[in-house]
Amino acid sequence: MRVTIIGGGILGTAHAVEAVRRGHTVVHLERETEARGATVRNFGLVWVSGRSTAELDAALRSRELWQELGAEIPGIGFRAAGSITLLRTDAEVAVAREAVDRGDADHRGFTLLHPEQVRALNPALRGTFLGGLHCARDAVVESRQALPAIREYLMGTGRYTFLPGVEARSVDGLTVRDDRGERHGADLVVVCAGAAHAGLVRELAGDLPVRRVRLQMMQTEPLGEALTTAIADADSFRYYPGFAGPALDALRRNEPQDPVAADGHMQLLCVQRLHGGLTIGDTHEYDEPFAFDVSTQPYAYLAARVEEFLGGPLPAIRQRWAGVYSQCTDPHQLVCRTSPEDNVWVVTGPGGRGMTLGPAIAEHTADLIGM
């Protein structure tokens, strides 16, 4: 088939990979000269930790697909690094212990570590904590270089064309008209427009059960040593459904979240880039209109938390940024996937799970379509 894909972020690119792998020819439109949305403004984490039971198999399948892609395309920077969620209180330890005692703990790769085991696994962690929940299934890719590397690989097949700086304006039948007046005929159109819910997406699919979420993150200069795993704080337990249970209920009841963290719907996630710097975040804002500036208080809070775990000062902050992603509000769906016309599909709303689940979502779409 001839496949036209609209949107150059992780979802659009993952769908392009799936189409090319299945023998089809892809024309890929991206309105910017390079993807600039949530796809490149994230941690690059393939985050199995805490996924709901319904999402777990998809997350594990996606990690498998990422590992396969990383072996074919070294520029993706795939590392099976795992993660450690660091525990500061007895109540947080109780949530972790409950997680490792569940029947799916091995499936998730969970192990509860004592402080000395944490430091043996990740020697950069010299600070204060009572232990850590290790997830061996978590992984990392380089979010800012993965998509260009994948596109270069796809171009080498001779069946992939990337058109940057080209915005799709309409879909008439199976012909996409762009803002330069060009028409792209296809047998299948897949629209992965990210956080753009209006315009063409609304015209094709109407009002979908999605919302936009804003985040703030930062990146440091090189740490000077290896942070061998991704790290998180136990505030992440409060936001991931896989940790739900009596111990988490007790944590919420007896240990309210720090006011700064609660106000920003914050959890600490931290991963080391290949150049040695640390990507640190993040906050969540749900009510639009979003602020156009960034707030300093969340950055200070997150930096202090990382320093607590490292047992020393962070390197200088090199960059700060904000981003917006699309989140499906239906708890029973990973994404909003709709086919308003025959062979015109709209796929959006993976939330903060886009980098984790992108390859598996694309594989599922291709199976649904019968590609």
From TrEMBL:
<dbReference type="InterPro" id="IPR017741">
    <property type="entry name" value="FAD-dependent_OxRdtase_HpnW"/>
</dbReference>
<keyword id="KW-0560">Oxidoreductase</keyword>
<dbReference type="InterPro" id="IPR006076">
    <property type="entry name" value="FAD-dep_OxRdtase"/>
</dbReference>
<protein>
    <submittedName>
        <fullName>FAD dependent oxidoreductase TIGR03364</fullName>
    </submittedName>
</protein>
<dbReference type="Pfam" id="PF01266">
    <property type="entry name" value="DAO"/>
</dbReference>
<dbReference type="GO" id="GO:0005737">
    <property type="term" value="C:cytoplasm"/>
</dbReference>
<keyword id="KW-0285">Flavoprotein</keyword>
<dbReference type="InterPro" id="IPR036188">
    <property type="entry name" value="FAD/NAD-bd_sf"/>
</dbReference>
<comment type="similarity">
    <text>Belongs to the DadA oxidoreductase family.</text>
</comment>
<feature type="domain" description="FAD dependent oxidoreductase">
    <location>
        <begin position="2"/>
        <end position="368"/>
    </location>
</feature>
<dbReference type="GO" id="GO:0016491">
    <property type="term" value="F:oxidoreductase activity"/>
</dbReference>
